[in-house]
């Protein structure tokens, strides 16, 4: 199943890795934050290298680090990611 992004001109809101980890820590204090940081940096590079989701959309680096290597639409079922990091 392929999803086409409905809002192709929208971009994710930018956030630094450290700022995201701080926000994540507030509700996930028992998680291994060093591993999360390394995973985010890894998937950020994978995204820069041009690796795509199975549906051919751009990877969602933060969520890929938390769950699996996929795009926003495959994880959420939504196409508008303009209010997400």
Describe the structure concisely for a colleague.
With about 80 residues, the protein is mainly α.
Question: What does this protein structure show overall?
Answer:
The chain has helices spanning 17-27, 33-48, 61-66, 72-76. The chain is mostly helical. The two termini are 25 Å apart. It is globular, with a radius of gyration of 13 Å.
Most strands sheet: none
Radius of gyration: 13 Å
- Mean pLDDT, to the nearest integer, reads 82
Unreliable sequence segments: 1-7
How far do the termini sit from each other?
25 Å
Percent in strands: under 5%
Spell out the helices and strands N to C: HHHH
The number of helical runs is 4
Protein structure class? mainly alpha
The helix content is 40-55%
Which SSEs are present, and which pair or pack?
Blueprint: H1 17-27, H2 33-48, H3 61-66, H4 72-76
């Amino acid at each position: 199943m392929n999803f086409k992004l409905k809002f192709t001109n929208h971009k994710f809101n930018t956030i630094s890795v450290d700022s995201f980890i701080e926000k994540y820590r507030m509700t996930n204090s028992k998680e291994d934050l060093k591993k999360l940081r390394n995973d985010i940096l890894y998937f950020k590079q994978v995204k820069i290298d041009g690796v795509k989701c199975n549906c051919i959309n751009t990877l969602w680096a933060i969520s890929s680090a938390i769950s699996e290597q996929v795009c926003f639409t495959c994880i959420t079922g939504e196409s508008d990611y303009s209010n997400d990091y």
